Each structure stands twice: as structure tokens, then as C-alpha cells.
# Entry
Amino acid sequence: MIHLLRVELARYRSRRIIALLLLLAALLAALVAVKSAWDTRPITTQEAATARANAEMVPESGEVEQQLTSCLANPERYLGPGFTAQDCRDNFTGSPGNYLPRKPLDLTGTLKGNGLGVALAVAGLLVIAASTFAGSDWASGSMVTQLLFEPRRSRVWVAKALAVTVASGLVALVTIGGFWLAMYLVAVDRDVPHGSAVMSDVGWHVLRAVLFATGAALGAYALTMLFRHSVATLSLLFVYSVGGEILTFLVPVDNVGRWTLGNNVYGWLETRMEFFDPTSRCARLGDCDGLQHISHLQGGLYLLGLLVLVVALSWLLFRRRDVGAV
# Structure
């Protein structure tokens, strides 16, 4: 098995398209880190003076006070879900901070924004790489040749799966971990608050993101070994993710939003996932009091269940089906 694993890892690395996809993942993470650092660069003295001047020019009209009072009475209804009374004050008072051209670096904000985007982008590229790795064997017909040298199908399937898992896990750790290492160094250089609570959230997010990217790649490999075509795998994933969200608004069943792929992915990756479910009974009646929550455990179990189902079905059918009939 060790020899087979080494062979499959070598084959994984030797694919040019896979090498390009992995390079793209690294470049993407680096680019987002650079852009995040640039977009949150410190405010200059001139920019601060301009913001103070603009704040002093704002008239204290009764209309503004009335809007502020209405917003403070119900911030979420006035501004949207998740907004607080402080957001009302920030929006309707002449504070210089409202006129600054950009906001300073905030690791918590990065965790909810660019950090989440990097995790999803890396996972998506690893899914394409894993599907390409498995699909090329079927497209070229080399799977038949491989089974001539190693007739035990289970060993072949497992060796390929381990190669995809190990390679994807390492790439995800380097790219996602590298992004957050860069943001941490920028925060230290700028004296941005990065206490133990924030770094704990970041650390757990990196772990969950690496596991998600690794599991997504393994699932894509298993699906491609099942369908024997990369296009079929990627098409199914697209239809399941996008089509599932569309069906959420169409099916006449309560609380379907809890079971969509997108909500559970975000539930696993985000620090705290809250969402508005349009299929809930209160949403249909228009009297929802708040947002619904998906915990890391709930999101993780959902994704793990899908992965186990796909892997088991792929492995069983690979052992039984005629390999020559693609």
C-alpha cells in the first residue's frame, strides 16, 4: 500500500493541470492577503483631517434626529439583520469615522469576509484538481492498465483516495494557513488588537477550513470514480449547490433552509453562522423575531454524512462494476 500511495502521489504531482490549479490556489491566497493589507492600511494625517472637516459640515437637522430615533427603536428592522444601536449612531451622526476612506484592519472582520472567501476558493480549486486526477484515468483508459498490475481494486481505490487526501490537506494547510500567517504579521506590525479570543477563532477556522477543503477534494474524487467523468462530477456539484438554494424558495415545506448545502458549509466554516430561513413558518407569516443558527457540529455532521455516503457508494461500485465499460 505504501508503494501504491507513493506512485499515486507522484502521478498527482506530475499532472500539469493539477500543478497549475495548486499554483493558482497559492497565488489567490497571496493576492487576497496583499489586497486585504492594502485596503486596511493606516489612515494618513491628511485623510483624518479631511474626515473631521466633512463631519463638521453635516447639519444637525431634525430629520436626521428623527431617523436616528427610529433606527434606535429597532436597528434590525431599520438597517437589516445583525445591526445594532451602535450602527445606528455610526450612520446618523456626524462622526469623523463615518467619513474615513477605509476601515482599519480587523481580524474578526477578515474572518467573516476575505478569510472565508479564501477557504471556499481553495476548496473549489482542490475539488477541480481531485476530479481531474480521477477523471483522467478513465478518459485515457489507463485505469484498465493499472488494474493489470494491481488487480485488487480496493487497494487501488484507497491508494488514490489517500493520495488526494494527503495532497489536498497539505495544499489547504499551506495556502489557508499562509494567508492567516500573513494577516497576523500585518496585525502585529500595525499594533492591531489580536488577543487570545480572536486568535482562537482564527485557529479553529483554519482547522475547519483545512478539513473542509480536504473532505471536499476526497468527495470530488469519489464522485468521479463513481461517474467516471470529471464533467459529470462538477455538473452534479453545481446543480446540487445552486439548485438546492433555488429549491429552498420553491418547495412548500417548513425549515428546508436548514438542510441546504450552502448554509451547512457556512455553518461549518463561520465562527457563528446565523441565517434567515425563508421557508420557516414565521417567515411565511412575516413575524420572525430573529435569525436561525447552525452550529459547527450540525454543519460538520451534515457534510460528513454526505462524504461518507459518496465514499462508500463509490468504493462499493468500483469493486463490482466492469472497469472496461466506461
